[in-house]
Amino acid sequence: MASATAHPDHRLISSEDVEGTEVYGIGDDKVGEIDHLIIDKLSGRVIYAVMSFGGFLGLGHSHYPVPWAALKYDTSLSGFRTGITEQQLRDAPEFSDDSWTDRNWETVTHRHYGVTPYWDASMHR
Amino acid sequence: MASATAHPDHRLISSEDVEGTEVYGIGDDKVGEIDHLIIDKLSGRVIYAVMSFGGFLGLGHSHYPVPWAALKYDTSLSGFRTGITEQQLRDAPEFSDDSWTDRNWETVTHRHYGVTPYWDASMHR
Q1: What positions does the domain PRC-barrel occupy (chains A, B) (predicted)?
Q2: How far apart are CA B39 and CA B120, in angstroms?
Q3: Where are the domains of chain B?
Q4: 20 to 30 A from B93, CA-CA: which of A71, A83, A103, B73?
Q5: Quick one: DSSP state of residue B70?
């Protein structure tokens, strides 16, 4: 890793190793971790991170899909940061296995977290 | 799926379900399948698909990392298409677990498959 040709950081991760990447909230508190990612096969972009909160917030659901745009990878933490609040998670739109094919759910969810829908943002990211 | 709000196709896939997505070569022949993906945590883009060829080509390696740009998802096939040839796989640059952090390996590999390096193409995809 000391090679001049090495990446400045470990940006690349196997989809098999995604599970367990930590997510930090405001103030560097760990709030949860990535359970898995939802990927658009056409564009090759990550669309959602399904986060696990492990009971931290005492929430009913243990898994929450969060738009990728609401997370930012921080190489110094080797984890993601998010500004998502506990209240946003409590109020998040209900989801099911069919939500990924439901544009209404996707629209409401992106609006809920205050991020631009990925289908409007393809040229900006 | 008949809903007006449904996606026109199942574009979104869980990282947990990536394994086994089929890859077709020229002429609709199945040449292999996706074993897993390599993802850039910063940009949220898939960078490589690690393909399994299952002995189809009688190659020494069973897994080959292929730049994402060398694959194209075809919704009618529910799989990927690629123009990569057997000879390209036979001649592919050697790789190891450290290759993901080796910009030289990445440069050579993208050149080998005739695709633009992702770090040059971020505004075009």
Answers
A1: 13-73
A2: 16
A3: 15-113
A4: B73
A5: G
B91, two tokens: 């001649």
The backbone torsions φ and ψ at residue A36, rounded to the nearest 5 degrees and listed phi first, read: -160, 175
**Four-way CATH pick for A15-113: 3.40.1480.10, 2.30.30.240, 2.30.30.90, 1.10.287.1770:** 2.30.30.240
Q: Is the Cβ–Cβ distance between A40 and B11 less than 8 Å?
A: yes
Give the tens place of pLDDT for each residue, A64-107.
Answer: 899 999 999 988 888 999 998 878 888 899 888 888 889 999 99
Calculate how close chain B gets to A101, using CA atoms only, in Å.
5
> Which stretch of DSSP H or E encloses residue B106?
helix B103-113
3-state secondary structure A63-85: EEEEEHHHEEEECCCCEEEECCC
> What are the chain B neighbours of A16 within 8 Å (beta carbons)?
36
Facing residue for A13 by CB, picked from B10, B41, B80: B41
Instruction: Answer yes or no: do A15 and B38 touch at CB < 8 A.
Output: yes
The pTM of the full predicted model, rounded to 2 decimals, is 0.82
